[in-house]
Automatic annotation (TrEMBL), chain A:
The chain crosses the membrane at residues 88-110, 348-370, 400-422, 442-463, 493-517, 752-776, 810-831, 843-864. Keywords: Cell membrane, Membrane, Transmembrane, Transmembrane helix. InterPro entries: ABC3_permease_C, ADOP, MacB_PCD, Macrolide_Exporter_MacB, Perm_prefix_1. The keyword Cell membrane applies. Residues 352-469, 759-872 form the ABC3 transporter permease C-terminal domain. This is ABC transporter permease. GO terms for cellular component: plasma membrane. It is found in: Cell membrane. The keyword Flavoprotein does not apply.
TrEMBL record, chain B:
It comes from Occallatibacter riparius. NCBIfam families: padR_acidobact. Pfam families: PadR (PF03551). Residues 22-94 form the Transcription regulator PadR N-terminal domain. This is PadR family transcriptional regulator. InterPro entries: Metal_resp_DNA-bind_regulator, Tscrpt_reg_PadR_acidobac-type, Tscrpt_reg_PadR_N, WH-like_DNA-bd_sf, WH_DNA-bd_sf.
Length: 879, 117
């Protein structure tokens, strides 16, 4: 066989015809020479040659690529069969598509997040160094400049260490001032990661960050595009950050970002990096705000490094017990740090989607087995008519492949869709959306698994049928079902496992859903409806004096309150659900003085008058701040209910005095009121004791406006911006969001995981239903004759239906039983992500089982229903 | 015409025999199908009757295997005819097949001899 011949076969056929014509002429000529009349001569020549069409056909046969032509026949026949059994084909296709699609999508996410190497050449040697507040406090706490500098100088395990401070700054000088996320980093930060600038240079340790006079900045690619129109001339240009001039020295490559949210003040990916500069007065040991990264020395293991840093830390503790007591050190590899938050959730999803694939394979197998036994008859007839066994098996194989390939294609499209949906519902910063590309490897894997299961379960029975003597199945059709029973067992096992797996997924999903609704039902401690919030931050240079800041807020709040539709307006230092808070030790006046590390801890915030009223935090006793406290520090403090209970369990806290270690002078404050608790760190978080000072007490450089409005708070955004710019044209507003959005963002991740899990459970549920429907309807088909006889002998149809239903329900029952056992083991893995939900809630188990049982019953009934249409006489005659 | 006592044999009787005969016929020089058929019949004293219809598929097959080549040319009476010619591979194949044929004949003879005696 040769392809050239195959493609030239038309020309060759013409040539052959010409050749035979030439033969006929020559033979005719010979015959004429022998004395025949021309007509007779021609006829004799024809007789001698034989049937021209046959000869040409014989020659053409040699030119054709025969398996290809019969393949094409098989494919066409296969398509006809699939069209004929549309239900089977459609269900198989859908099953394959769902299994392959879901797996492709999820694995793509897993690959982009957990498997693909981090985009930093040195990633494997970079670790984050945190302080660990003992004994069971925060394991990843930021550190102080003094500690970091000692780490940097005295460690024995790192080639280099760098500090990072994620900040928020005002970028001015353009048309509009802009609040932008920035990071102040040690000059060796980029070289630790091993990343260079795309344009210009990164910081050089010997020259950058040496003094205040030499301020340099590196831009992110996005900032360069957006704010500087991709102008290569930006290098050497001066930009203004927080009213201070910086020189741009470089632009990072597209997609470069390094952001660890833990301990970050801005909570956002930095857009501009500036070289960090430790002035002598900055090298303090109080005030922890730095993240630290280190580049492990070649050959140093994480365990070794951890030990070395621990002994260094105990030396620091011995030198300065006041600030270092109970502060240990915790090293975290960079990958674990960057993916740790999502890794567990992703593994969960991966397990769930793997179960979906299992069910899909089982379903394809079940369907194929059902078909194969139905086909024994067809195969027997074809073989009785003389078809070669090889040919029959190949035909079945072709059909399986056809279906699998179509399923794979549909799965790929579905995977693409799934990915698009995932991208649209995934909360920001959860997964690296830009890096998501449909992953061909997993698509190939999922396709291969499904295709293999299709081939295996489609072809083995066909082989079996082809090997059996043709007579047997023909007889079988007329009587017993005995030899089909073995295959029946295989299908039953598959369906039982499907139902069990579906139940596990269903339980997982219902637990997550229940937990999610318990979270969103939590009272945050305030009324978020119709509240607009906006971040205001002053550049240090222009608002240095407290009066300036006080005045700014007085004027701003006055003009915001004057906007029609605004009911009240105030401001808060650390807004609930915005992600940050300051915490410190507190000492009650008159009680034994303990070291700071052994004192109770409270969160601290600053508020403008009217804050509690605006946000709807209830006043429990005493009073809140009045207007005069908006202008001067009076040393009064409002505390939360839980703080009152922690510090004064059986006393009235009003009028009591407490030292909150956050001011320079640390004078005691007087409690003037108690307000309700607020779930500051998120709905699922524990309530923490909180102290509120009035704004002038600390005079932060930033506050968040809170404005309660009539109607949709979004409608007030333009008026708010205008009010701010009227007071200071260089003052930007950032993060203008309704409080309800903040609230819903805080549960976005949980919602996302719940949605995806629920989708998988639904798919698994549907597939399992299809499986049980298939088995039961096959049973009914196989037992048509038996049923006919029973009915003919007077059995009630209802009784027969009941009998068949029972068979389906027994399978469902076994599957459910196994599923319960499996879920009791597996859902325990969910414990850490569940909120006030035990992994084995009896009500949920009962509900899920009931749902699965009901739907199985329904699917069985649909399958069995056709019994009612059986005419017993026709059924008996047909056999 | 076949002689009495020697009934005509179908050249297809032994598989591959026709191929061998064709290759042998082409050894002296190129010929077209009609000539090949006649030469085989003539040389075997009409004992071997070539089914002319099966000759052409055989030629086709031999050509596909690369043992012969063909080209169109004028026949003896100046008509268009397709001439076949042995290739080098065909020559080798002829040698191989001839020797195998002789082995076969010898073997068959040695089996048959006892019956003759």
């Amino acid at each position: 066989m040769s392809w050239t011949r195959f493609f030239q076969r038309r020309a060759r056929r013409e040539e052959s015809a010409a050749e035979l014509e030439a033969y006929l002429e020559a033979e005719t000529q010979d015959n004429i020479e022998r004395g025949m009349p021309p007509a007779e001569a021609r006829r004799a020549a024809h007789i001698k040659l034989g049937n021209v069409t046959n000869i040409l056909g014989n020659m053409a046969q040699q030119d054709s690529v025969s398996w290809l032509e019969t393949l094409w026949q098989d494919v066409r026949y296969g398509f006809r069969m699939l069209l004929k059994h549309r239900g089977f084909a459609l269900v198989s296709l859908l099953t394959l598509a769902l299994g392959i699609g879901a797996n492709t999508a999820i694995f793509t996410v897993v690959d982009a997040t957990l498997i693909r190497p981090l985009p930093f050449p040195n990633a494997n040697r970079v670790v984050m160094a945190w302080e660990h507040r003992m004994p069971d406090g925060e394991r990843q706490n930021v550190t102080s400049p003094a500690t970091f500098l000692r780490w940097q100088q005295d460690n024995t395990v790192f080639d280099q260490m760098a500090a990072i401070f994620n900040d928020s700054s005002i970028l001015s000088g353009g048309d509009v001032p802009e609040q932008i996320a920035t990071a102040s980093v040690s000059p060796n930060f980029f070289s630790i990661l091993g990343v260079n600038a795309a344009l210009g240079r990164v910081f050089v340790p010997e020259q950058d960050g040496k003094s205040n006079s030499n301020r340099v900045a590196v831009l992110s690619f996005d900032t360069w595009q957006r704010r500087f129109a991709s102008d290569p001339g930006v290098l050497g240009q001066a930009i203004t950050l927080d009213d201070k001039p910086y020189t741009v020295v470089g632009v990072m490559p597209r997609g470069f970002d390094f952001f660890v949210k833990q301990g970050s003040f801005s909570q956002k990916k930095p857009q501009i990096w500036v070289a960090m500069n430790f002035s002598p007065e900055n090298r303090t040991s109080h005030g922890r705000y730095l993240q630290a990264i280190g580049l492990l020395r070649q050959g140093v293991t994480l365990g070794h490094a951890q030990d070395a840093m621990l002994s260094l830390q105990s030396r620091l503790e011995a030198e300065d017990p006041a600030s270092m007591k109970n502060w240990s050190v915790n090293l975290v590899p960079l990958r674990a740090q960057l993916t740790g938050e999502v890794a567990q959730g992703l593994r969960l999803l991966l397990a769930a989607v793997g179960m979906v694939l299992l069910i899909a394979c089982a379903n394809v197998a079940t369907l194929n087995l059902a078909r194969a036994s139905a086909r024994r008859h067809e195969i027997a007839i074809r073989m009785a008519l003389g078809a070669a066994a090889k040919r029959v098996v190949r035909q079945v194989l072709t059909e399986s492949c056809l279906l699998s390939l179509m399923g794979g294609a549909a799965g790929f499209c579905l995977g693409y869709l799934c990915l698009a949906v995932l991208k649209s519902i995934a909360p920001a910063n959860l997964i690296p959306l830009d890096a998501l590309r449909l992953d061909w490897r997993v698509f190939a894997f999922a396709t291969a698994v499904s295709v293999l299961s299709g081939l295996l379960f489609g072809t083995i029975p066909a082989l079996d049928a082809a090997r059996t003597a043709p007579r047997e199945p023909l007889q079988e059709g007329a009587g017993t079902v005995s030899s089909g029973e073995n295959r029946g067992v295989a299908r039953r096992i598959l369906v039982v496992s499907e139902i069990a797996i579906a139940l596990v997924l269903l339980m997982g999903a219902s637990l997550l859903i229940r937990s999610f609704y318990r979270i969103v039902a939590v009272d945050p401690g305030f009324r978020p409806q119709n509240v607009l919030t906006a971040w205001v931050q002053f550049p240090n240079a222009r608002y240095q004096k407290d009066e300036q800041k006080n005045q700014f807020f007085e004027r701003l709040l006055d003009s915001v309150r004057a906007i029609p539709g605004v009911r009240s307006a105030s401001a808060d230092g650390f807004l609930p659900f915005a992600g940050i808070i300051a915490a410190t030790a507190v000492q009650v006046e008159g009680r034994p003085v303990l070291p700071i590390s052994q004192l109770p801890v409270a969160d601290v915030s600053l508020v403008e008058p009217g804050f509690f009223e605006t946000l709807g935090i209830p006043l429990i006793s005493g009073r809140t701040f009045n207007q005069s406290e908006a202008f001067q520090a009076t040393g009064n403090v409002v505390i939360s209910q839980s703080m009152a209970q922690t510090l004064w369990p059986h006393e009235d806290p009003i009028g009591k005095r407490v030292t909150i270690y956050m001011k320079r002078d640390n004078k005691p404050s007087t409690v003037i009121g108690v307000v309700g608790d607020v779930k500051h760190a998120g709905l699922a978080s524990a309530v923490r004791p909180t102290a509120y000072w009035s704004y002038p007490e600390l005079g932060f450089q930033f506050m968040t406006l809170v404005i309660r409005t009539d109607g949709d708070p979004r409608a007030f955004i333009p008026a708010l911006r205008e009010a701010v710019l009227r007071i200071d044209k260089d003052q930007p507003l950032a993060d203008v969001v309704p409080m309800e959005t903040l609230l819903s963002m805080s549960v976005a991740r949980t919602r996302f995981a719940t949605q995806v899990m629920a989708a998988f459970a639904l798919i698994a549920f549907l597939l399992a239903i299809v499986g049980i429907y298939g088995v039961v309807s096959y049973d009914v088909e196989q037992r048509g004759r038996e049923i006919g006889i029973r009915i003919a002998l007077g059995a009630q149809r209802a009784g027969v239906i009941g009998l068949m239903l029972k068979r389906g329900m027994v399978l469902a029952g076994i599957g459910i039983g196994l599923g319960i056992a499996a879920s009791l083991g597996l859902t325990r893995l969910l414990t850490s992500v569940l909120y006030q939900t035990r992994p084995n809630e009896p009500i949920l188990i009962a509900l899920d089982c009931a749902a699965l049982a009901m739907v199985s019953l329904f699917a069985s009934y649909i399958a069995v229903r056709r019994i009612t249409r059986i005419d017993p006489m026709a059924m008996l005659r047909r056999e | 015409m076949p002689k009495p006592g020697a009934p005509p044999l179908d050249a297809d009787l032994l598989q591959g025999t026709l191929d061998l005969l064709i290759l042998q016929t082409l050894l002296p020089g190129p010929a077209h199908g009609h000539t090949i058929a006649h030469v085989i019949e003539h040389r075997s004293d009409e004992v071997l009757q070539v089914e002319h219809g099966s000759l052409y598929p055989a030629l086709h097959r031999l050509q596909n295997r690369g043992w012969i080549k063909s080209e169109w040319g004028p026949s003896e009476n100046n008509r268009k005819a397709r001439f076949y010619r042995l290739t080098a591979a065909g020559r080798k194949q002829l040698l191989r097949q001839t020797s195998r044929w002789e082995q076969l004949v010898a073997a068959v003879n040695s089996v048959l001899k006892p019956a003759r005696e």
